[in-house]
Batch of 3 targets.
Target 1
Amino acid sequence: MNELIAEGVGQRFGRRVLFRRLELAARGGETLAITGSNGSGKSTLVRILAGVQTPTRGRVTLRCGGRDVDDADRPFLTALVAPYLNVYDGFSPRENLEFIARARRLADADRRIEATLERVSLGDRVDDFVGTFSSGMKQRMRFAAALLADPPLVLLDEPTSNLDEAGIRTVDGIIRACTDEGKVVIVATNDADEAAACDRTLCVTDFI
């Protein structure tokens, strides 16, 4: 069983407090929506959960197979998709993923790359420069980069940003597949329909 737990997490920047004593428990096979107004701290919380930002107080624990993951290892076991994350415009999708595969020392890289690009509907653009892609296609590329290593924790910050209806359907399919595989899936969103599609909802502003 995969599980992500946040205990007493708080974040402030100077005098500005985003949230206090936030509690969260998300289990593999379910989806949790993080909601709140613009500027409420959703993206900050996502980065804290991913282990790439340290909270002012509290702790976050990722548990895989009944064992707690070391905090330093959590980012490597997390798929993070967010509009502020970039891929290399001067590389093709294949080259972007080859770079990630080498950096992560992933086995069976060629098979993973081909399957991942098909999964995000970029199989016909594998050798085109990412710099020629639309904003929606770049968002699909972010999904490919995040999912390549098949991590147990999937954090999606505004995942359908810039996507057309076909892209949204692709994301919905990815989320369903991830939950079927027992992954922890957390979606930070301002979209009421997207939040309603999740199993549970946590509003950041409840912890001010």
Target 2
Amino acid sequence: MLWLRLNGSRCLLWLMLALPVGAEASEDLLGARFSPVAGNPDALDFALEDRFGEVRRLSQHRGQVVVVNFWATWCGPCLAELPTMQALWERLSDGPFEFLAINVGEESSTIDRFLNGFDPPLGFRILMDPKMRVVREWQVRGIPTTYVVDRQGRLAEFAEGGIDFTDDSVVGRIRRLMDEGG
């Protein structure tokens, strides 16, 4: 598991477990499950640039279910998640749904080089948090970390670790939130 430790303005990253290789690797990396967020507090708003320089705010998506995923190009479970994130976005993007993938602490040139390797390109929004301000505000302890924000802007679901976003239980949970509060 990859952990992120924030200590003042310093950020220490370390790999605590070697990543598996082989055919089972992506399955092993995508074993996390969503849990409900106790009390459904309001999600903290943020304003971050996407990779094209456009500022996006979470609050712009009020009325939609928003999956907020924190990731990095060097994170094995994050890499395994990306194709499943694209599949979920394609499956649900015609409804009240948005996917915001927040890159944690990397330069835009690194992110661009990495994302240019996807064919077809990823369709969901990639936001950049180079100073890790949103990571601190959202108290992210490790990556990947994913939150699901309901249509009223409240935190509904939470997971630390890689998620298979094509899993029927994940799709079902998100669809239920999409059907609520419309």
Target 3
Amino acid sequence: MRIPSQISDRYWLFELNEAYRFKKPREERASGKWLIFDHAERIDALWEVISTAIKNGQLGPSAKVATAKPNPNAKDNATRVICVFTEDYNDREDVHRVEQELRALGVKNRLVYKLDRDVGKYENRGDTNLIKEVSEAVDD
């Protein structure tokens, strides 16, 4: 397995669920992702859990994780993000299923949901209304 903290030649590592079958054509989907932010020193272990769950078909079609390469879109260098994609934000049952599965996998972090149509827009650049949903952190 490739380890995000050891990759510095690209911004992202990706994991795909090869068996995933989309229910709708791309143009009919409002795809999005749950964003999981964590400290850089903990991202490798969290990515291993998420990556395995994607391959096992427990989550959505794919996920990506920020690597050690400094990203100008990041709020700070001490935090990394994992994006867990869902097929369609309008499929509320699936969006919440993925959220609950992340919790079942032990993800306690605050989760933020963002639509893919807002890719390239960032709060630290002044863009607003990007967050569609929030799932607050879970206490131990």
